[in-house]
Amino acid sequence: MKKVTIVGIGPGGYEDMTVRAINAIKDAEVVTGYRLYLGLVKDLIGGKETFCTEMRGEVERCQKAAEYALSGRNVVLISSGDAGIYGMAGLMLKVLEDHPEVETEVIPGVSACQSGGAVLGAPLVHDFAVISLSDLLTPWELIEKRLAAAAGADFVIVLYNPGSHKRADYLSKACDILLQYKSPDTICGIVKNISRDGEEHHFMTLRELRDTKVDMLTTVFIGNSHTGIINGKMVTPRGYRI
Amino acid sequence: MKKVTIVGIGPGGYEDMTVRAINAIKDAEVVTGYRLYLGLVKDLIGGKETFCTEMRGEVERCQKAAEYALSGRNVVLISSGDAGIYGMAGLMLKVLEDHPEVETEVIPGVSACQSGGAVLGAPLVHDFAVISLSDLLTPWELIEKRLAAAAGADFVIVLYNPGSHKRADYLSKACDILLQYKSPDTICGIVKNISRDGEEHHFMTLRELRDTKVDMLTTVFIGNSHTGIINGKMVTPRGYRI
After folding, report:
1. Which helix (H) or strand (E) holds B145?
2. Labelling B158: which of A73, A83, A84, A140 has CA 20 to 30 A away?
């Protein structure tokens, strides 16, 4: 059988992986992925053959995984978080477009909106929108349109890839759009290095978020009009009467 | 220490749970939750004390968990999927509002948008919005507004609670709104009984989805304008050049 298993490993620690993800890596003959993420699961990989690339080596990683599968090797492609949420699952399926004989399995994992949300409290208990601020692969105009639409309909909003050295002002630009629809007092939270050394989180208003510095390892949560702070946790209510 | 641990168990099977969720249940003295979900993890619960209620017993469940915590018992509150995505985490934190001395921990799990997405392929690889069609706790007008906003900005959309006996026409009503913004040929997918006996999934266009019957155990995925079918899987591209 020719098969590629695309595995979401969650934020990085063994405890946050699903049993299915752990077993898939244990059962694999070859493990491929971004070098940093292979390092996170090196104890599971042990002495297995690996193939890793650096950032932006996504296409090469998938092509190599396809080669392994076509040669009959049991290959796992690692994705951080959930392989299906801004993860490698889509690209892997695309790379295999001309090889319908290769079976694929996607194993979900805990994504940053979930692990970060759990650190902050319960921000996503009502309708939410997930938006990446990276314009490497998406026109900035479309990102702006989505920010405006999500804010206008009072979604809780999670921002992935909110900033980097090159994109230092993107979060400010995004907040300026959100502030056209959401109150400047909207409760927000940011989580950095989720489940890793140096994890930190902070609560702030949308007005304060606008002038907050973030990096690629930060996930940003913007509440809806009912989101509040309860005992130091960010909580979006669902409407129960208690 | 007084503490409530709110645990997301994922779609229901042991393999789809995180190690952290499994350990939390194993370590608990008392397990509370909806009767059906306790049944899904009965092997982990073993002979422990449990407290369960039926559907709509959410407030009672949380109040009981709070009582256990206040009396010093190590209590776990079970939520299906992710405790933080339409799960019990928000209500539990609210119920504990007057008890800041009780520590809380939210353990994320695999939500239906992830487990269902993995069954379908990779529909959520780009920006997406998650909307519940249940108007038990949310005014229908707000749900309509969110559907229109998400469709107008070309989000991939995931619908939770898309229908029930009482709400048989809600999905059709939702699709009528989406069809004002999205092409009738938009690729959609539905997954029923995710990871359970009787799991089934189907692909269809948005026009066809409008006339499809669904129940509370179905999760609905509506693609963006670039979503397609590759080798029998629903794939939303991210924009890589290959």
Report:
1. helix B140-152
2. A140
